[in-house]
Amino acid sequence: MQNEQETKALRRKFFKYTLPSISAMWVYSLYTIIDGIFVGRGVGPNALAAVNLAMPFVNFIFACSVLFSTGASTIISIYLGKKNLKSANEVFTLNIVSMIIFSIAILILSLLNLERLAIFLGATDSTLPMVKEFLRIIISFNTFFVISYYLEVIVKTDGFPYFSIIGVCLSAITNIFLDYIFVIKLNFGVAGAAYATGISQVIACVFFLVHFLKKNSTLKFVKFKYDFNILKRIISIGLPDFITEMSTGVVLFIFNQVILNRLGENGIITFGIISYVNTLVLMTMIGITQGMQPLSSYYYGKGDSDTISKLFNMSLKTVAFVSIFIFSTVLIFSSSIVNVFIKNADVDLFNYSVYAFKLFSTSFLVVGYNILISGFFASIEKPTKAIAISLSRGLVTIILSLFIMTTLFNDLGIWIATLVSEILCILISITVLKRNPIT
């Protein structure tokens, strides 16, 4: 009876952290999705293609934030589990300073090489001005991008998971409102969408900073000595999740190049729509994983392997349910989803987009397990195992699958390559998990 009550209590705690994490990741996904909807409807399909070409770099910025945020959150949670508040505060402060320095370096290097960056991402003569304009504005706000996400993650680690929802919702509402004003009313084009996203990140950043200046926050900004060993530890733990997020940008970049060569700009428009939904799915799975991670790290710090095992099984069941629900929803509403982005497109483009979307969505049934297992190993400070899974999924299997599938099945291979890649990777994930049992 007592064991059953403990399981119920753990389940409540799991969902207390997981639901805000999923909500927060959804909101971060909605930033780009809303931009896509307003750009597609308010500017046109070519502008949607331009934004999609710029997205790999936006993913890079977000992945950098994940790199620092996940690692710091794990270490801070372990210190809190050991009741070592002093070290937790020092890591919290050191990490935010490191992120600011890193983001400034990205800002300088990117703006100095803006046109080369746009061309590298695949900008064509018709999309180059829009790609450059969108990138220039997003890059200018990149410090707020990385810091706002870090603070949102640490707010949950600090014991205020639902406070994070308020912050990201406030930011999302700002983004939607400004998209409508800048893109629809003022006709600022892709620049309007970029400004709306950037300003919304400023709002989120300020909102979360206020929390850590209040008396009721456990974590505080403190004086610290710059310890590169701590920074190395942060990066090593955060690297698997960085690869998971970065893989979104890498895959998007590679797919863009293959699609441009085989299908042209109309293919980019189709893939742009799929990418927005795929990002939402990936963020949902990352949200489940990040909801599990602080608890897993905390119990790892306490040495409670039995609770860690229960927590992992709860996470697996959650991923299974969410995967089936998302896939079913896409199959039923695929036409409606495509219509949201390209309502006024020609019939051939619309029908092809629906067809490709349904094929690609089969990968949604598998992707969550790979992300969860990788994130789990990171949460118990086994980054090597996590990196092996993330590298396999994010780089090796998807690149091999894309080129093999397109060679065998031509254009059809583009849309089934991700499913093949995720299936191959899940075999690797299961193998690693069996060789490294939880208990």
UniProtKB/TrEMBL annotation:
<feature type="transmembrane region" description="Helical">
    <location>
        <begin position="163"/>
        <end position="184"/>
    </location>
</feature>
<dbReference type="GO" id="GO:0005886">
    <property type="term" value="C:plasma membrane"/>
</dbReference>
<feature type="transmembrane region" description="Helical">
    <location>
        <begin position="412"/>
        <end position="433"/>
    </location>
</feature>
<dbReference type="GO" id="GO:0015297">
    <property type="term" value="F:antiporter activity"/>
</dbReference>
<feature type="transmembrane region" description="Helical">
    <location>
        <begin position="21"/>
        <end position="40"/>
    </location>
</feature>
<dbReference type="Pfam" id="PF01554">
    <property type="entry name" value="MatE"/>
</dbReference>
<dbReference type="InterPro" id="IPR051327">
    <property type="entry name" value="MATE_MepA_subfamily"/>
</dbReference>
<feature type="transmembrane region" description="Helical">
    <location>
        <begin position="386"/>
        <end position="406"/>
    </location>
</feature>
<dbReference type="InterPro" id="IPR002528">
    <property type="entry name" value="MATE_fam"/>
</dbReference>
<protein>
    <recommendedName>
        <fullName>Multidrug export protein MepA</fullName>
    </recommendedName>
</protein>
<feature type="transmembrane region" description="Helical">
    <location>
        <begin position="354"/>
        <end position="379"/>
    </location>
</feature>
<feature type="transmembrane region" description="Helical">
    <location>
        <begin position="319"/>
        <end position="342"/>
    </location>
</feature>
<keyword id="KW-0813">Transport</keyword>
<keyword id="KW-1003">Cell membrane</keyword>
<keyword id="KW-0812">Transmembrane</keyword>
<feature type="transmembrane region" description="Helical">
    <location>
        <begin position="267"/>
        <end position="288"/>
    </location>
</feature>
<keyword id="KW-0046">Antibiotic resistance</keyword>
<feature type="transmembrane region" description="Helical">
    <location>
        <begin position="134"/>
        <end position="151"/>
    </location>
</feature>
<feature type="transmembrane region" description="Helical">
    <location>
        <begin position="92"/>
        <end position="114"/>
    </location>
</feature>
<comment type="similarity">
    <text>Belongs to the multi antimicrobial extrusion (MATE) (TC 2.A.66.1) family. MepA subfamily.</text>
</comment>
<feature type="transmembrane region" description="Helical">
    <location>
        <begin position="234"/>
        <end position="255"/>
    </location>
</feature>
<feature type="transmembrane region" description="Helical">
    <location>
        <begin position="60"/>
        <end position="80"/>
    </location>
</feature>
<feature type="transmembrane region" description="Helical">
    <location>
        <begin position="190"/>
        <end position="213"/>
    </location>
</feature>
<dbReference type="GO" id="GO:0042910">
    <property type="term" value="F:xenobiotic transmembrane transporter activity"/>
</dbReference>
<dbReference type="InterPro" id="IPR048279">
    <property type="entry name" value="MdtK-like"/>
</dbReference>
<keyword id="KW-0472">Membrane</keyword>
<keyword id="KW-1133">Transmembrane helix</keyword>
<dbReference type="InterPro" id="IPR045070">
    <property type="entry name" value="MATE_MepA-like"/>
</dbReference>
<dbReference type="GO" id="GO:0046677">
    <property type="term" value="P:response to antibiotic"/>
</dbReference>
